[in-house]
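Hey, quick one: can you model this chain's 3D structure?
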Amino acid sequence: MRKTACALIAALGVLEAADAAQAGELVNGGKLLLTGGVSNVEGAGGGGLASWATITGYETRDGIGGNVHATKVDLPDYDFTSYGAAVGWRDRVELSYARQAFDTGATGAKLGLGAGFTFHQDVIGAKVRVLGDAVYDQDSWLPQVAVGAQFKKNDRGAVIRAIGGKDDSGVDVYVAATKVLLNQSLVLDGTVRATKANQTGLLGFGGGKKDDYSLQFEGSAGVLVTKRLLIGAEYRTKPDNLAGLKEDDWMDVFAAYAINKNLSITAAYADLGTVATFKDQRGLYVSLQAGF
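Sure thing. Here's the predicted structure for all 292 residues.
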């Protein structure tokens, strides 16, 4: 059945649907709009907060795709920005890079760091699809499964040690499973991450409470309202390693819109809970992605 479906798609150049729930748009005979995900805060293909099993870009199994992104999260007491790039090879391997900045703004003075004190972090990621196809395996419940790793390096080692962090660099490892259900217009993802990161590494790795890896969950669920618009929600659990600096789970509700095959924008309302002693860090998340 899968070979027959792919042959029809290649011959027609579009995905014919019985109803609006199945309506989609093929890009260069490859993926449907938005089903490859957007760029998350760490640069990997996925949702805004979660890493998915999908490989970034609109490449087929015979090509190369890629994107660049810029993301900003405006919080009551902090500002977060991220920019970077990712490359997908034959819909099998993804390589990504993100440069993150966590600006304490006026809050930095209250924390004794100085106004405008900023933590920077580089995130280098790799992901490999090992099983399934999120879009084309519609005759099976088997999801697309990928394994990934992210090396993270923070530039504020002295401050991280002063607040009780054990390291200014670390490696996260994750397994993600993603399924696109065209008949139901649903995109679903579940990811398990092994990590020691505090606030995804922005406040270092490990701490006085715990300095071992722990397993954390990232979940995403979205509805393809149209072939260009995906709305949904995400939840990401976090370790709580630092003594005296409580860390909460993250969540958001989002809308991702594909302007065309080369440009998309994601907007979300994000709730990051308590960050570095300041509670109720909720605000607008906006991300712009350009690619092919």
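One thing worth noting: The chain has one domain: 2-291.
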